[in-house]
Amino acid sequence: MKYLxxxxxxxxxxxxxxxxxxxLEYEWDKLxxxxxxxxxxxxxxxxxxANQYSFSRDEVVKPSYVDDSYDTSLWLFADDGSQFQYNxxxxxxxxxxxxxxxxxxxxxxxxxx
Length: 113
Fold this sequence. Notes:
With 113 residues, the protein is α+β, with helices and mostly antiparallel strands. It is built from one helix and five strands, in the order ββαβββ. It has one domain (3-104). 19% of the residues lie in helices and 34% in strands. It starts with a strand and ends in a 9-residue tail after the last strand.
C-alpha cells in the first residue's frame, strides 16, 4: 500500500480566494514515516502561525526540522528513515491551511477530458 499526505487549503490572489486540495509529491510505503511527516507538518503550521502573529519572533522557538534559511521549508521522513527537504505550498501570502491528513493511494482506473 502507498500512503499520501493530503492538504486542503485556501489560495487565491488580491481579487479573491478559494479552497483547493493537493497532495505532497512523495508517496510513503510505511505508515509510521507518513504519520511522523504529518506530525512535522502540523508542528510546522503551528509554529508558522505563532511566529507570524508574534510581536517578538525571538519568543517563538523554531522547530529543529524547519529549514534555517526558509520558513516555508521543512524536513520530512522518507521510507528508509532518512530525511528530505520539502518546500510547502500551503503557506504564503494568499495560502492558509485548512486540513491535513493521510490517505491510501488508490490505483483505480480513471480518465479526465
